[in-house]
Amino acid sequence: MTPTAVIDLGRAALELTLMISAPLFIAALVTGLIVSIFQAATQINEATLSFVPKLVVIFITMILAGPWMITMMTDFMRRLFESIPTMIG
């Protein structure tokens, strides 16, 4: 296995990780922004107020995007396992 192949495999794994985690990060970011605007408008300065809405939105996002995430991970693992003979030999 060449160093180039190892770097390509690592790059593909990092790309997959970023692509799978992006919906969750975006949902948490948007929820945090909305809660922050609400806190600024009502002058409620409670740090724990944004935790529960973020948790709920991330859970809903995982329910909606979960099948896509699992499909992406399964396809990557299938391609990885199928390429083992070419990596060894």
C-alpha end-to-end distance: 8 Å
Oligomer: single chain
Average pLDDT, rounded to a whole number, is 92
Per DSSP E runs of 2 or more residues, the count of β-strands stands at 0
Note poorly predicted spans. none
Number of domains: 1
Number of helices: 3
Our Rg estimate from Cα atoms comes to 19 Å
Helix content: over 70%
Portion of residues in beta strands equals under 5%
Helix and strand string, N-terminal first? Answer: HHH
Query: What would you call the structural class?
Result: mainly alpha
Question: What's the main sheet like?
Answer: none
Structure write-up:
The chain has about 90 residues and is mainly alpha-helical. About 85% of the residues lie in helices and about 0% in strands. Helix 1 runs antiparallel to helix 2. The longest helix is centred in the first third of the chain and has 40 residues, at about 5-40. The protein is elongated, with a radius of gyration of 19 Å. The model has no long low-confidence stretch (mean pLDDT about 90).
Summarize the structure.
By secondary structure, this protein is mostly helical. It has helices at 3-42, 51-82, 84-88.
Please name the defining characteristics of this protein.
single chain; 89 residues; mainly alpha; 3 helices; 87% helix; 0% strand; elongated
Outline the fold blueprint.
Elements: H1 3-42, H2 51-82, H3 84-88
Helix pairs in contact: 1-2
